[in-house]
Amino acid sequence: MKQINKRAYFFEQTLKLIHEKGFKATTMRDIAEKLNFKVANVYNYVPSKQALLEMYLFDISNEFHTAIDYIIDSTHDPREKLRLVISSYIQITSRRPYEQALLINEWRNLKEPRLKEFVDRRKEYEDKLQAIISAGVVQNQFRALNVELATQTIMATMRWLDKVYIDSGKNTNPIEIEKQLVDFVFKGVAQG
User: Which position has the higher pLDDT, 181 or 134?
Assistant: First the structure.
């Protein structure tokens, strides 16, 4: 049990350090100093800084994809699916704000071929959201609008959420954030 706690602590502190300094500026030596380790001990947890970034980015990206896939496969109508996408994004971000911050700010530091894979996965997520909005327009639940613009606006609205949880701390209520964000989005896209 102690090893699991040490491991969790290592990754928690590493995430915070990368958030503070930025990925490029953070060295393995910085990580070791932050944790009062010898540099060699850092490699007991991760083989390289690049592997660390890949692990964080693809892990949280996969969680976002799993959530939206369940929503798409559900029998809910497009309006409810959009609400659930927003809700899942908020819930994931509330639990993993530092990883979501990496997802938004540090993905450009991936190296090929993982960079292309990440960009393709991000586009795939946006396409899934766009399909929900398109279905809502077709079913007259959302007003006729530029679906791509609506998709990118909703994504941009959700991408800053890490700041709410990092700056405000764990006291920020995800249910309240969801209500405000859903109200805001639906005032823009909902029909009548």
Answer: 134
- Of residues 155 and 164, the one with the higher pLDDT is 155
- The pLDDT score that the predictor gives to residue 3 is 54
Q: How confident is the model at residue 1 (pLDDT cuts 50, 70, 90)?
A: very low
**Count: domains in the chain:** 2
| Cα 134 to Cα 169: distance, rounded to the nearest angstrom | 36
Residue 115's CB is within 10 A of a number of other CB atoms, namely 15
Cα angle at 171 between 166 and 175, to 5 degrees?
Answer: 100
Q: How far is CA 1 from the centre of its chain?
A: 28
| Residue 180 and residue 135 in one domain | yes
Report the C-alpha gap between 157 and 186 in whole angstroms.
12
Q: Amino acid letter at 41?
A: N
Domain that holds residue 181: 49-189
Rg of the chain taking only CA atoms, in angstroms: 19
pLDDT tens sequence across 56-109 = 999 999 999 999 999 999 999 999 999 999 999 999 999 999 999 999 999 999
Q: Are 149 and 93 in contact (CB under 8 A)?
A: no
Does residue 16 sit in the same domain as residue 62? no
Dihedral of alpha carbons 65, 71, 74, 75, sign: negative
